[in-house]
Amino acid sequence: MPLERLQKIIAAAGIASRRKAEELISQRRVTVNGQIISELGSKADPQRDHIKVDGKLLHGAERHTYLLLNKPRGYVTTVSDPEGRPTVMSLVEKVGERVYPVGRLDYASEGLLLLTNDGELANKLTRAATHVPKTYLIKISGRAPEEDIEKLRHGIRIGSKPEHGRFKSVRTAPAQIRLFKEADNPWYEVTLIEGRNRQIRRMFEEIGHHVEKIRRVRYGPLTLDVEPGQFRELSAKEVETLRRFDGHRRRVEPVPKRMFHKPERRPKTR
After folding, report:
1. From the candidates 45, 49, 54, 106, which is the catalytic residue?
2. What's this model's pTM, rounded to 2 decimal places?
3. Among 6, 58, 203, 241, which has the minimal tally of Cβ within 10 Å of its Cβ?
4. Per-residue model confidence (pLDDT) at position 71
């Protein structure tokens, strides 16, 4: 069998995403035939070489699993949480395969979250150059003037975490924003091609409006169609569509009004 990059082998085994596998290698936590490997780009033969991560032997590639989860509010999108809060992993623990979140939704947000042990696909989807559009329904406090919404559509400067004691500001990429439901506290449909930390909340805070609710209803070609706390496996066709997905060529359609209500029930696959 031809030699493969070590991070690709680790990702295929379901240990971590390819990016995380690179960190494991750099941290000298990976050995090949008893020798510590710390150089990125190192190769090995997954069939012949004894590859260990943190002293545990890899047993080849796991069956790839792809899940679409409707994350409820009050869960963190991590494998574990130092504060002891519930994580999304508790919602998929009966799957039987180790999976990891692709990207994240913050603790107070809800909606579509992709989980997989396919490190190669996860790496492709999380690269900034992929430009995977993510669509959210959000509820804000108070009515925003159209001219302020137009600022958000074109991109706006938002503050970021302090760096060396100084605040940095970054400009957001252009966003698609449509009024979804008129009310004193209206709902908007927002589509982003980037995913900065708490970006939507910070964008609307810049124009003076608190975001009360966030629900992700689309991720690239995938649409939320399971109830909160439930998940389903992706079909082979959906996985192939994700593999071939090119955000630069895809037109984002408006979200249908039924997405405002609870998703339709689908038969459970597990």
Report:
1. 106
2. 0.73
3. 241
4. 97
